[in-house]
Structure formats: structure tokens, C-alpha cells
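Late entry, written up from scratch paper. The run itself happened at the end of the previous shift, but nothing got recorded in the book at the time, so transcribing now.
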Amino acid sequence: MKKICDIAPEVLKKVRQGCVIPAQPLALDENRRFMPEYQRALCRYYIDAGVGGIAVGVHSTQFAIRNPEIGLFEPVLSRTSEFIDQWCSKRGKKILKVAGVCGKTEQALYEAEFAVKSGYDAGLLSMAAFANDSVEAMLEHARAVAKVIPVIGFYLQPSVGGRILPYEFWKEFAMIDNVLAIKMAPFNRYQTFDVVRAVAESNKDITLYTGNDDNILIDLLTPYNINGKIMRIKGGLLGHWCCWTRKAVELLEEVHQLDGADSVPMEMLARNAAITDCNAAFFDPAHSFAGCIPGIHEVLRRQGLLKGTWCLDPEEVLSEGQAEEISRVHDAYPALHDDDFVAANLAEWLAD
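Output as recorded:
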């Protein structure tokens, strides 16, 4: 069993303070074969951008890596863990390594155990397999996984495979031992508040992370007053932050500098709207998020960090007009992209 206290102190401190944790995409070639050299380049990019962690085997990495006929779960997680360790060692850094943990309890325990053996610090626990189960069954599942690896709870929006989880679920979830953090990604203010309230009332040391890619900056800026206790969402574990990552790190640093301020600059509110506009282009809500993974692939492809937009499912492609939308937001908000940073370092990240 791996516990929260087993995480390197400097890494845990960064997680508690709040950091950028990109949800890493899967690097594939035109034949939909794994491209380790580009997966490695993405790791190097994120580390040099200043992230506090990387999440692998999650939605952005494509859940289909677990399909027996594809068989990429173990290779992708083990190789990515090695890539992170190698580059962190070279740079004199340590970051949190997060593995996605999915499926019913038997599969989830296998994935959690494999993650621990592969050097991961925490498991992002998907509840998508429990769409028709009781709250108590979900809690028992979470308790079982938390006995193997520190858990990051995951409130995933229903439109991409999640389900609505009541306040009562999060109240009990927060009391489970070995829960490190909760990623809130319901894309819904009411449901986000349920999690914040549940954690506040638990008095447990659980760090809140936004996964609400449609409302990133407001989530990070908002103080929640729960019966006199001020709660903050400290960082983000986001698919949106797997591209233009250096700017995400700078953004979070700005937010942390404002902590305790009496007011928020209007410019930050305007920037929230701009980031949401970019997310609409990347994640494709206009087509019920059908192009969300190809969308982030396209942003990275344009920078040279991926070879193409290929997904494991040949039908998963950019939606009509999505490429044009990505071009529009790129040109409309030059302060939000990190093209210069990537261009200056890409050759080193792709080198052997």
C-alpha cells in the first residue's frame, strides 16, 4: 500500500499549495501506434513548463488504451513514468505522478497496483463504470482503491461518461482515509459547490483541484465561505492545460499572488472569458465534446509536440469547423499561447 505520507515531502507541499497538473494526451502515429519519442517530448515539455504533476491514463490519454485488443495501458503508464523520472532527474526536480484508475473494483485494483509498481504517487479515480450503481457501492469501491494508492476523487461530467454525484456521496468520500485531493469536473457550479462544501465540513486535509475546463480562472479566484471556513480551489488537473502549458503555470502563479487580496483585477475576469473561449475551440462543446481529444491534439500538432491528431478510434476526429475555431482563438489571444517557449525548446525535447 502506498500512503500520502509516502509522497516526497517537496512534491506533497507543492500539491497542497496548488499546482498545474496536465492530463497528458496519447502520442500516436498515422497507423495509430504508440510513439514513445513524442510521449517523452510531452513529458519534457510539461516539466520544463513548470508543472507540479502529470496525469496519465486519464480521459485525455484515451480510456481505450485499456481495451485488450489495443493493450497500451501498461506500456503507456510504465514508459511515461520512466520519461518523467529521467527528465526530472536531469532538471533536478520532482513532480507528482498521477495514474488514471478506471473500471469496476477488480480492474481498478489491478490498475492501482500496477500504478504503484510503476512509481506513481496517486490514482485519479474514475467512477464512470458505476453509472447504474448505488452511492454505497461507489464508496466501497473508493475505499478499496484507497487501500492501495492515494486517491484523487474525480467528479466527471455526464456528457463524457460521468454521472451526477450528490453532496452525500462527497461527504462520505471525504472521510475515506488516503484521499489526497478531489478534481471537480462536472462543468456545473451547483455540483462543484457540493464538493467544496463536503470537504469543508469534513475538516480533512483534502486539496481541491478544478477540472472545470469551462471556468478555470473563476474557480481558482473564488473564495468559498462555508460556515465561516474559507475554502479555495488550489490548482488544476485539466485536459485544457495539456497544451499552452507554460502560460497555465504563469496564470496559476498570478492567482496565488492574489491570494488574500481584497479585490480581483477586472483584467483577470476578462482573461477568464478568453480562456473559456479557447476551451470551446479545443473541447468542442458545440458538438457535445465530440472533438475534445482531437482538438487538444491539433493544438499540440501545430506546435510540433505531436505528429498528428490521430486517436485510437478512427471515428474520433476534429469536428466540422473546429480547426478554424482553434485558429481563431490562437490569433485572438496571443498572450494565452506559448508558441515561442515551445519553439525555443522543441529540438531538445525531441532529441534522444
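The chain has a mean pLDDT of 96.
(Scratch paper discarded after transcription.)
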